Amino acid sequence: MRHTLVLTKGNVGDQLYGFGSNKRGQLGVLTDKIRSLNTPQPCLGFESAELVTVIANGDHSAAISADGRLFTWGRSFSGQSDVCVPECLSSSLSFNQAALGWNHGLLLTGDGEVLMLGGRHHGALGEPERIAHARNCSDSENSHLRKVPGLDGRKVVQIATGAEHSAVITEDGEIYTWGWGEHGQLGLGDTDDQTSPKSVDLKNVYNHDSSILRVYCGSGFTFVVGTGRPQEDGSLL
């Protein structure tokens, strides 16, 4: 990660600050002529939005407002010009989570559906389906969004992205991973890339009384947080 975003809350309203690299406009300071900032500066363009979540990774930035609007800026996921001013991604969809990788992003809607943005390096985004027509949305607004294949009928409650791999947790406590697998970060027992979500078998470390709480992805690794008491062999009671 080359830059940092900080969201402050106060009596005079929310304020988002950024510092670090701005080579792709990811600090939201309205110009790409400022290549980097050593001290926090306000990110502009959120005067009418109450922000609840901010995300920064690679050359990308994103923020989610209290009413479910998603703003993105920095390096474009579509291969077009960089975006120096935060843009509302879609006015017809409501989001509650976002996760950013180097070349892709995952978005979670309030209905538990996972959508995605960006490139397909190492199968990070699988073979996606366009969602514009299925949702009666205009192509111009949502044609850049894709539906993650292989998760139909499963409500997702949490998403995470690494450099070029992804992971999700369903409401049933299952973990699915896909994308770049060179370092075993998909947890599938091999180092193969996967172009569609695969279920991660945790029976050897979790029993029926344990549950998965969160999944986290780093550049080339993944770890989960769950309930239970560890045994000597590393499994959880």
UniProtKB/TrEMBL annotation:
Keyword field contains Repeat: yes
UniProt keyword Magnesium, yes or no: no
Gene3D superfamilies to which the protein is assigned, alphabetical: Regulator of chromosome condensation 1/beta-lactamase-inhibitor protein II
InterPro entries: RCC1-like_dom (IPR058923), RCC1/BLIP-II (IPR009091), Reg_chr_condens (IPR000408), Ub_ligase/GEF_domain (IPR051210)
RCC repeats: 14-67, 68-111, 112-172, 173-228
RCC1-like domain residues: 2-224
Pfam families according to UniProt: WD40_RLD (PF25390)
Keywords: Repeat
Record-given protein name: RCC1-like domain-containing protein
Organism: Saponaria officinalis (Common soapwort)
